[in-house]
Amino acid sequence: MTKMIFDSEEDSINDLWTTGRLIDELFLNLISIKEIIYNDEGRPVTVHKYYHQAREKMLRIPITKGKGRTSFVIHISHLTEKVGKELIDYYADAGKQAFTIVLKQAVSKIFESLDFEYTHISIMKNLTVRFIE
Prior knowledge:
disordered N terminus, mini-chromosome maintenance (MCM) complex, chain A, domain 1, alpha+beta
């Protein structure tokens, strides 16, 4: 049986991530995060945090611009150690502009799963992503 590099559980020095893999891994990392919110009756409900955020901001992103722009917010503490390290390395190698594109592409996958056409017609041109502690 053939063993591929990404099949191993241990990180290898040869485990190089492409830009596409970084986008996919960041997306998968974000959609795995859950949180408890309370519904209108005050009952706790478990939701996927970043899908929930996308639903909440979906209609506001296209209409907010400039200083008051609605941003998609990622908590740094929600990133796995490996994804965080790869993002830092990518930023150092590729620069701010390429890094921003990677973030937008990963986050756009969340919006796409909610409404593909609306994402590409209305959200992508105004989407900003920022990190917080």
